[in-house]
Write a structure and sequence with these properties.
The chain has about 475 residues and is an all-alpha fold. It is built from 18 helices and no strands. The longest helix is centred in the last third of the chain and has 68 residues. The protein starts with a helix and ends with a helix.
């Protein structure tokens, strides 16, 4: 490979920086929506698509982008995606209409979905053993920190730049970081090795998989955006998925390489870990959506105060993610079980505190349980990533990571749509205290299901031993 140890860690830095930007943009816009509405006079449906359209296009391109990186070169794909993300961020910041903004966000999502499988594929390619666990631990810290710190950073930007134009700087901040990362990446990323006879992309497989994901995600996103959700698409999803599996098997039987190697799901650690990630992200990401609604609309917190109230989770998650890299090779998925117990306990206590109607002191009262939940979360995300991809060979690293992250994006859409739906239903009946309690129950439920799945895997392992 010809990559020195120092260059590998430098490459990891640029990968983490780029990954942080793309994942930060999932959550940072939540607190900027009132500023967008004021600055652009944007209708509610457009604001919904600013948030959910990014998640939709992000999720749709993950698998084909991972496969392209594996086949055509991860560094090349990384640079292209990072350039596109930077340009789309600038376009979003300069938006003069809500339509312009929504289109820019859709392109941003495509770029983010292209970039993230390359990050994980490069980690698989560059690191082995304990070094890989440490690298995944740092990536897990980036995932947790970017998701949790997004509201705080967005609130700070709005506070400094003003409510009418502050939303533009939520996007502009990506431009200098993206340009610096591009220059750095050109110097430190490994050179792509020449491939003989690159595989065909399996366009039919891409279309069938994309159609199945679209049929699942679009109704959830339309539900979240406030427009009429096309639930009639949902029955089409399993049909398209079955057709996809049949096509992939036939494609392989004809001696060609399918978009997804279904043999990946024959690896127990990979299939369990991918399902666990889907369930956990359904609970993990819905927390921030309902808490942002509760603090800003229910208690009248500013965007900055809302971000500060959720900071304990971010701090706990970042600290334990870094620690987990030293422990995961020793304890494996048992560490994930411990993290899920901590996350579940912290969320249950948070729910109980807020259900009691603490008023304006809510942010202080939930600081400790959110810290516990964050520490638990940090012991889930990166160790699960490490264990899930441990037995996947590096040649399929980008594709495997793309599938795994697609599950996470699907979980995010399911969890956020479910939590927001129940939140607003409870709000109409019992006010904000009842709404936040009901919304957090969704997070508690999905995390509990993830814990059940992790315990089931441990029991299977114990029996085999």
């Amino acid at each position: 490979m010809g990559t020195s140890t120092s260059q590998r860690w430098q490459a990891l830095v640029v990968c983490l920086l780029a990954g942080f930007m793309t994942l930060l943009d999932v959550s940072i816009v939540n607190v900027a929506l009132p500023s967008m509405q004021q600055g652009l006079d944007a209708p509610p449906v457009a604001l919904g698509w600013v948030v959910s359209g990014y998640a939709l296009t992000f999720g749709l391109v993950l698998v084909p982008a991972g496969r392209l990186g594996d086949d055509r070169g991860r560094s090349r794909m990384f640079m292209l995606a990072l350039l596109l993300f930077t340009v789309a961020s600038a376009a979003a910041g300069f938006a003069e209409s809500s339509t312009w903004l929504v289109v820019s966000r859709l392109v941003q999502g495509v770029a983010g979905g292209m970039l993230n499988p390359q990050v994980l594929g490069l980690i698989q390619q560059l690191f082995q053993g304990s070094a890989r666990a440490k690298a995944f631990g740092l990536f897990g810290a980036v995932v947790g920190l970017s998701t949790a710190i997004g509201p705080l950073l967005g609130g700070l930007i709005i506070e400094l730049a003003g409510s009418e134009q502050g939303w533009r700087w939520v996007f502009f901040v990506n431009v200098p970081i993206g340009l610096a990362a591009l220059v750095f990446a050109a110097r430190v990323l490994p050179k792509d090795e020449a491939t003989e006879g690159a595989r065909s992309l399996d366009l039919i497989g891409v279309l069938l998989l994309g159609g199945a994901l679209l049929a699942l995600l679009l109704p959830l996103i339309e539900r979240e955006s406030g427009s009429g959700p096309p639930w009639y698409l949902v029955p089409a999803a399993p049909v398209l998925l079955v057709l996809f599996v049949l096509w992939e098997r036939g494609y392989r039987n004809r001696g060609r390489e399918p978009i997804i190697d279904l043999g990946l799901f024959g690896i127990r650690s990979y299939s369990f870990g991918s399902a666990l990630g889907l369930l956990y992200f359904a609970g993990f990401t819905s927390i921030f959506f309902v808490l942002a609604l509760y603090f800003q609309r229910g208690l009248g917190y500013s965007a900055l105060e809302t971000g500060l109230a959720m900071t304990p989770f971010a701090l706990g998650s970042a600290a334990s993610s870094a620690l987990s890299s030293r422990l995961v090779n020793r304890f494996g998925r048992s560490l994930v079980v411990l993290g899920l117990v901590g996350a579940l306990a912290g969320l249950v206590v948070t729910d109980l505190v807020l259900a009691g109607g603490p008023g304006s002191a809510a942010g202080l009262l939930v600081a400790a349980p959110l810290l516990v939940a964050g520490v638990g979360s940090g012991l889930v995300i990166s160790p699960n990533q490490t264990v899930t991809l441990a037995k996947v060979d590096s040649a399929r690293g980008g594709t495997a990571a793309g599938i795994q992250q697609t599950g996470q994006r699907l979980g995010t859409a399911i969890g956020t749509a479910t939590a927001s739906g129940l939140f607003f239903s409870a709000l109409a009946v019992g006010g904000y205290d009842a709404a936040i309690s009901t919304g957090l129950l969704v997070a508690v439920g999905f995390v509990a299901l993830a814990l059940l799945l992790a315990v089931t895997e441990q029991l299977i392992l114990t029996r085999r031993r």
